[in-house]
Amino acid sequence: MSAPIFIDPKLCKGCGKCVKGCGFGALKMVDAPGANKPGKLAEVDAAACKACNACVTACPFKAIAEVKQKIYGTEHIEDYKDIWVFAEQNGGRVAEVAYELLAKGVELKNQRGQGAKLAAVLLGSQLPKAAEDSLIAAGADVVYKVDDPSLADYEANVYVDAVSQLIVKHRPEVVLAGATAVGRAFFARVAVKVRTGLTADCTMLKIEETENKDTGALQMLLHQTRPAFGGNIMATIMTPNHRPQMATVRPKVFKKAPADPKRKGQVLAEALKLIAPKTKLVKVVKDPAAIDITAHDILVAGGRGLKKEENFKLLFRLAELLGGEVACSRACVDAGWCSVTRQVGQTGKTVAPKLYLCFGISGAIQHLEGIRGADTIVAVNSDPNAPIFGVADLGIVGDLFEILPLLVKELESK
Amino acid sequence: MHVIVCIKQVPDTTNVRINPKTNTLMREGVESIINPFDEYALEEGLRLKDMTGAKVSVVTMGPPQAAVVLREAMARGADDAYLVSSRAFGGADTLATSYTLSMAIRKICGGRTPDLVLFGKQAIDGDTAQVGPGVSEFLDVPLVTYVKSLKADKSSYQVTSVMDDGEHVVTGSFPCVMTVLKEATTPRFAPLAGWRKAAKAEIAAFDEKALAADPIRIGLTGSPTKVVTIFPPPTKGGGEKVDARTDAAAGAQAIADFLQKKGLVKA
User: Fold this and answer.
1) d(CA A112, CA A106)
2) Beta partners for residue A89, in sequence order
3) CB proximity under 8 Å: A 328-357 to B
4) What is the pLDDT of residue B85?
5) B187-197 burial, b if ≥16 CB within 10 A, otherwise e?
6) Percentage of chain A with pLDDT > 90?
7) pLDDT grade for A1, boundaries at 50, 70 and 90
8) Do B193 and B73 fall within a single domain?
9) Do both B253 and B182 map to the same domain?
10) Residue A384: its pLDDT value, please?
């Protein structure tokens, strides 16, 4: 543990003026025979020192120096309490990821302790009561509701304004959002507006007592873990000196908990003065044939090992036999064999099917992160050392071009 | 009209491999490229230049060798290029990077607000998609993300923004910060004459002094997020493994039996 001040024993005369000068009781005199005339030296308690520098000016002998310049951070971080989840909604329907985050939020609240509350932030216009009720049933103690005509449709700039205003007003310690198209876009700007850090696409979150490397103090910090450096390695990231600690999490990374309709919570309607929208939504064009691989219980996936687009035909046949959908790795999208809507992994979708049956996917960490929530993984690959076998419940080492047709034939015969 | 395109030099992560013995990244022989998403942002900027006569400036933050991607952008048609580079910027997270880039953009525009700032959707090395929105906040300019197609005249735009519930057709007026998707356009090749011009072009370099940047808001010092530990990805340990290299039928049978046992085959 390093203190923010340094006391030079060669210059300290043991006079004790710094002890009187310290408003936090962080300094005391200790016996040091032979060091100087009274035989005493000043000592600092790093955990109690607030780096106010009163002792630096109090010392007549210039024996105390500030170790670091003032840390760039949020003032009064101890005022920041509670854990918030941004509850994305569209047409009054709350996005699934909000419930998943509330389930994690309950865990974080318990780890945090000290009366921390779990709150949901709900923005929209003419919001149905069912939306707020569902958030309370999912674990929210408080719902901050902003119901305003300018929030009828998603507009990044108004969303930024609303959430930033709430953060400045209520000072949450942790704010989470789903890494959806909406969450990713506006949340990054909120973090910058309130001058704090944001960790994207976390796959693990926990709150634990941790030493702040800058101040030496022990703090309850949010450990934010995500794949990093191109996804080949996991990194745990913290935001020690800024509040709130902000993170996004992709849908399906955490599991939602069963709703408890009997839970009681508080709904606080917030009347905010919001900025005017900066863009105008002309229309929303929906593709009725759009594929949502996250909605399927069975996924049959292909990777680079499939070698060409037409080889996906057999995967489609297999998916049809199993009542599932076809997914793929990033390599197949880059090669132009598949649409990006089928892509699983860090830059594609995170999925949590009952069965993930994959062929010719080696299992780069970006891909493995996307299938961590799968109940059962079956993999076919020609390389016995492919990382996919490290996570597969059943791994078949062999030639997919031989095995796949035989499997299709076998299932067709049933 | 002045368009600023922010680009980043990244390692070609599709080729990054892990040393199986030491579990560390093998960076040797990994090529540096223009972040693929930024190529589409640049192309959108150059299309606006073709159509409206806009001036296109490119800017990158990185080590001195990142000038390579600036020359490539100039070869394709950008009018001028700026390298934001200093050891003091090292270790910047998305907040410190957004601050630094916004200071550079202010400097390039002589304190005026640019009409349009373009970013790729995200960088393939960090995958955060946070710097574009961050710069929009520091410049205090409206933000539009995930742009698939862009139509614009000198004062206003119409874009298609791809969201989870469909494609949003959105209109607005400049200034604006946009992040651009891969689907937007096909990036052009640089003509030989462009390369010749770019090779001779002068690239302005900015360090923290040139930008008059606040020293506690740049680099590692100005970064609220700290990487505390890195560790190899967790593995489940793997289950049953069947070697079907000499007997494909056994492999197919093993899968069929497994699916049957798990009740995953339709009756």
Assistant:
1) 10
2) A94
3) 330-331, 334, 340, 346-347, 354-355, 357
4) 97
5) beebeeebeee
6) 69
7) very low
8) yes
9) no
10) 94
Q: How far apart are alpha carbons A254 and A248 in whole angstroms?
A: 12
Looking at residue B155, what DSSP letter applies? Answer: S
Instruction: Indicate the average pLDDT of chain A.
Output: 91
A77-269 and A293-412 in the same fold: yes
Contact B137 A192 (CB under 8 A): yes
Of A58, A54, A53, A32, residue with least CA distance to A43: A32
Please state the pTM of the whole predicted model: 0.81
Question: Would you give the end-to-end CA distance of chain B in angstroms?
Answer: 65
Nearest one of B178, B93, B194, B168 to B143, comparing CA atoms: B178
CATH of domain A293-412: 3.40.50.1220
- Residue B59's identity, in one-letter code, is V
User: What's the domain range around B99?
Assistant: 2-217
Which positions ≥6 away from B263 have C-beta within 8 Å? none
List Cα–Cα distances, A45 to A26, A101, A210, in angstroms: 5, 39, 17
CATH number at residue B108: 3.40.50.620
In terms of C-beta distances under 8 Å and separation of at least 24 residues, what long-range contacts does A374-377 make, across chains too? A374/A299, A376/B262, A376/B264
In A, minimum Cα distance to B167 occurs at: A285
Do B166 and B98 fall into the same domain?
A: yes
Is B162 found in the same domain as B92? yes
Identify which of B16, B95, B245 has the shortest CB distance to residue A398: B245
For chain B, give the mean pLDDT: 90
Interface of A with B in 254-293 (CB under 8 A): 278-287, 290
B23-82 residues touching A, CB cutoff 8 A: 25
Q: What are phi and psi of A31, to 5 degrees?
A: -65, 130
Residues in Cβ contact with A245 at an 8 Å cutoff, skipping those fewer than 6 apart = A173, A174, A175, A196, A197, A221, A222, A224, A238, A239
Tens of pLDDT along B234-248? 666 678 889 999 999
Residues B128 and B187 in one domain: yes
Q: Domain spanning A5-66 has what CATH number?
A: 3.30.70.20
Distances (CA, A) of B191 to A329, B33, B44, B113, B188: 34, 18, 17, 31, 9
Q: In this complex, is the C-beta atom of A21 within 8 Å of any C-beta atom belonging to chain B?
A: no
Q: In chain A, where are the structural domains located? A: 5-66, 77-269, 293-412
**Same-domain status, B194 and B262:** no
pLDDT value of residue B15: 58
Relative orientation angle of helices A400-412 and A312-322, to the nearest 10 degrees: 30
pLDDT of residue B179: 96
8 Å CB contact of A334 and B14: yes
Quick check: B95 and A196 CB within 8 A?
Answer: yes
CB contacts of A355 in chain B (<8 Å) are 259, 262, 264
Q: Considering the domain boundaries, does residue B173 fall inside one?
A: yes
Asked, for residue B35, whether it belongs to a domain, the answer is yes
Q: Please list the alpha-helical segments (H only) found in A210-348.
A: 312-322, 330-334
Higher-scoring residue by pLDDT: A70, A411? A411
What is the count of structural domains for chain B?
Answer: 2
- Per DSSP bridges, beta strands A233-238 and A245-249 are unpaired
Q: What whole-number distance in Å separates Cα of residue A332 and Cα of residue A339?
A: 8
CA distances from B32 to B21, B41, B215 (A): 25, 18, 29
**Topology annotation, domain A77-269:** Rossmann fold (3.40.50)
* Residue of chain B minimizing CA distance to A230: B125
Q: What is the pLDDT of residues A76-122, one digit of tens each?
A: 888 999 999 999 999 999 999 999 999 999 999 999 999 999 999 99
Tokens 């939504």 locate to: A281
